[in-house]
Amino acid sequence: MTGFADFIGGFGDIMTVKVTTTVNGKPVSGDVEPNTLLVEFVRENLGLTGTHVGCDTSQCGACTVHFDGKPVKSCTILAVQAEGHQVVTIEGIGQPGNLHPMQAAFQENHGLQCGFCTPGMIMAGIGIVERNKGTNLSEETIRAELEGNICRCTGYHNIVKSIAAAARGN
Amino acid sequence: MRKFGIGQPVRRVEDVRFITGAGAYTDDLNLPGQAYGYLLRSPWAHAAIRSIDVSAARAADGVLGIWTGADLAAAGVGDLPCAISGVLRNRDGSVLEVAGRAVLARDRAMHVGDGLAFIVAETLAKAKAAAELIVVDAEELPAAANLADAVHGEAPRLRESAPGNICFDWEGGDAAAVDGAFGQAAHVTSIDLLHNRLAPSPIEPRAALGHVDDGRHVLRTSTQGANLFQRVIAPVLGIDQEALRIITADVGGSFGMKEFIYPEHILVLFAAEKLGRPVKWSGDRSESFMSDLHGRDVISHAEIAFDADGRATSLRVHNRANMGAYVSLFGPGIQTLGGARLTGGLYAIPAINVRVTGYYSNSVPVDAYRGAGRPEAAYVIERLMNKAARELGLAPDEIRRRNFIRPSQLPYRHPLGFVFDSGAFEANMDEAMRLADWAGFPARRDGARARGRLRGIGMSCYIESSVGFGYEAAEIRFPEDGTIEIVAGTMSAGQGHETVWAQIVTEQLGVPFEAIRLVQGDTDRVKTGGGTAGSRSTYMVAGAFRLSADQVIDKGKAFVAMLLGEPPESIEFSDGMFRSAGSNRSMSIMETAAAARRDGEGLDSGATFNHDISTFPNGCHVCEVEIDPDTGKVEVVRYLVVDDFGRIVNPMVVDGQVHGGIVQGLGQALMEHSLHDPETGQLVTGSFMDYALPRADDLCAIESSYNEVPCTTSPYGVKGCGEAGTTGACPAIMNAVLDALAERGVTELDMPATPLRVWQALRGAR
Question: Is pLDDT larger for residue A14 or for residue B129?
Fold first, then answer.
């Protein structure tokens, strides 16, 4: 597949632009090609490899991050669009010994197997709980709202259980 | 029971790095000075390649090297082998002899996605841009990409050496006995079934990073066992095994397809050596669909004969199996040496004959995918049983009851050679029917009918075999840092080996669970290993750890005896303590290991477990569906399973394997189908937008339970659990769908039961 940068590459050096944003609470900046995706910026420029790439059609959700507090697929946003915004990745929500409740719920409920879709699932799960705050979050709602994230290992059963447990606060 | 021992739902130790984003999957790894590889792939399903002109591409900005199939041949790079060549015997007595798969196509491209040239550049973008400048002069040839396109008489011939596109024609069982029984039959039921082609689709795409370090080739990539890669790749490159190191860190799912060696593995190593720089290749999802090995893709014709009492007397099956464009490492073995031996399932059918004909086609090679032939065997017999039950006027459970292998018949010698050691097949079904409230189903059907929906219930009583290579290796070591290093030749791709193997060693030695570290996936640290495949890992590794632990204990007893000045026979070991029977003195295993290490040899031990006996996980799945007759959409409203996996090491992890396996089966039954255009051979299902993987809202919760009948032939009575879910799910779901559709006159339906197919079946039956 040939992208925009490949075309302009034929006419000389590929143009780069500077992007300045906030990732996991820290100001970061980097030089990127205009067509660089946010997920590429996060993985390659910042070395935050917890955000994964599982497809090339924005279907799998493995690259889900929080953008100004909301879960988004970071393959659907250009790095330059993050200029001036707040990005949080899986590395920014909790660490070993100080896990985010959603991370702890995934471990407690065996909500992951190979772990590859897991960062995206956790970021999406936090969004589901946030959006449904104050409601009695049903299994049906969790399943419907997880529609944008694909897992091939777990059959979703324990992912749904994990998100429900995190929503209940246990 | 020990807190972290066998039988406990111990939370997984590997999870902490996965939930914090600290996993190390191949594409996460980068080396200084690394260059990027890109594979130019065939856009044609079948084409004669006249020439490949790379001159303009070679001169492009940032390009470091380009290689074609001719270049690899000139450099002496070998082909990827088929391990079944020279092993499988055709029904005419000849032995299968097949050429390997060229790393890059030489004079013919055989499928969409077949590799034509490998471009390495300073960046991936530059490699991709250079690929656009390569001129391939090729003549497109008639193609047969789907199995149905390759098997008929008018199909284009894809290989001079393979008339009718037939790769092999294998047969097992006693054809004469089967013919005789059919001659006496009171009733015969026959069926034609499609086992739809599947793209395994682990969410981590394939990637490989090759470099040359101190004269040795090093490959970092996802595998199901690094040692197999070392054994296969070294001869392809023409180097010694010791000159090749394979390192596998975290694997983002596999389900069979990462067990295999792909062209890109050879290419990154070859290019890294030529360029003197690390070379990384990362495939995207589009490439996965056209280059990952696929699964299933079999057409079955089956006939079963019954006596006047509804007891099956014989079974005859002919499977036509798609091998794809090339034979893969185990390709011809999957439906023959693997799945065919379970033809007939867990029923006492005296005479069985099964024939498997393998065909070439213009598609990605087909090899092992979760279940690897056993789901096909289970699907055939369980669909047949339901169809026969309808024809004979028997309930689905009644026909099964009349035909189960009974406990008194165990161990049972199957006509194709397996010996089923243990199981309680009818009890599993009874328990599943009780849990499912099978008796209350008519009322639920009436309720659905009142809502304008068709409701059906289906079951499958499956048996599969945990089987694999004949040995597994392990070591137990006590390094100075106070940890316990356990080394295994298996490889986890999400199954939780770091936790489960540690539970096994804790049980054996009473060592602190938290101090155990698993070493896997590095040929410099794991001397030998069979690898993870065929649901065998737990019992094989348990055997290898038990032999190793026995050595540790013997060495410990000898050492403690020496310290205490007592005879070794007077030292006992239990619960992690060496105790002197005579003097009341004791030493923990960790103290003993530290002291023994300071003293000299230490307690470090290792052993290889040789074991050629398969185990037989089995159970009963029950599924209930509701179908909207206006749209044809199938909704799974209840799913439950009673499994006999023998003894269970970690029930939490096993539940996860069951859930995941069932949902992959649900994908095959209702959604997934890898398809090519019949005219052009182009891949129609090339992304997650066209190939439907199950999502969270495509199914309901799964109720799993266990009937633990210990295996009599394996360590700890473990049977294995990894592939059972996929084996039992397809027939249970399809039997439920057909049960729902029966009142509308639908009697036949193939997978996947998509809304369109179900709607068409309802329209056609009117």
Answer: B129
What is the distance between the alpha carbons of residues A95 and A103, in angstroms, rounded to a whole number?
9
B128/A147 CB distance under 8 A: no
Residues B248 and B305 in one domain: no
pLDDT digits (tens, 9 = 90+) for B324-372: 999 999 999 999 998 999 999 999 999 999 999 999 999 999 999 999 9
| Whole-complex ipTM | 0.97
Nearest CA in chain B to A51: B21
Are A107 and B20 within 8 A, CB to CB? Answer: no
B88 and B226 co-located in one domain: yes
> Are A82 and A117 contained in the same domain?
no
Question: Is residue B17 less than 8 Å (CB to CB) from chain A?
Answer: yes
* Position A163 pLDDT exceeds 90: yes
pLDDT range class, residue B467, cuts 50, 70, 90: confident
Residue-wise pLDDT tens digits, B547-566: 999 999 999 999 999 999 99
Cβ–Cβ gap B659/A157 under 8 Å: yes
The full DSSP string for B517-552 is EEE-SBTTT------S-TT-HHHHHHHHHHHHHHHH
Count the domains in chain A. 2
Inter-chain contact B22–A50, Cβ cutoff 8 Å? yes
Domain assignment of residue B421, yes or no: yes
- The count of domains in chain B is 3
Q: Å from A9 to nearest chain B CA?
A: 8
Task: Kindly list the residues from chain B whose CB atom is less than 8 angstroms away from the CB atom of residue A50.
Answer: 20-23
Instruction: Please state, rounded to an integer, the average pLDDT across all residues of chain A.
Output: 93
pLDDT at B278: 98
B20: nearest CB among A94, A144, A160: A94
Mean pLDDT over B23-31 rounds to 98
Q: Which of residues 40-79 of A touch B (CB under 8 A)?
A: 43, 48-57, 59-60, 62
Nearest CA in chain B to A154: B660
B284 with B429, same domain: the answer is no
CA distance A83 to A29: 9
DSSP letters along A47-63, please? --TTS----SSS-S-TT
Is B43 touching A (CB cutoff 8 A)? no
* Structure confidence at residue A2 as a pLDDT band (50, 70, 90): very low
Residue B60 forms part of a structural domain: yes
Residue B276: its pLDDT value, please? 98
Tokens describing residue B247: 């390192």
Residue whose token pair is 């090729």? B138
CA distance B694 to chain A (A): 8
> Do B124 and B222 share a structural domain?
yes
- In this complex, the residue of B24, B496, B662 whose CB is nearest that of residue A155 is B662
Cis preceding-peptide flag for B715 (omega within 30 of 0): no
B120-151 confidence digits (pLDDT tens)? 999 999 999 999 999 999 999 999 999 999 99
| B56 close contact with A: CB closer than 8 A | no
For B450, counting Cβ atoms within 10 Å of its Cβ (0-12 exposed, 13-18 middle, 19+ buried), the class is exposed
User: Residue B487 and residue B242: Cα distance in Å, rounded?
Assistant: 19
A123-154 pLDDT per residue, tens: 999 999 999 999 999 999 999 999 999 999 99
N-term to C-term CA, chain A: 46
Exposure string (b/e) for B22-44, b if CB count within 10 Å is 16 or more?
bbebbbbbebeebbbbbbbbbbb
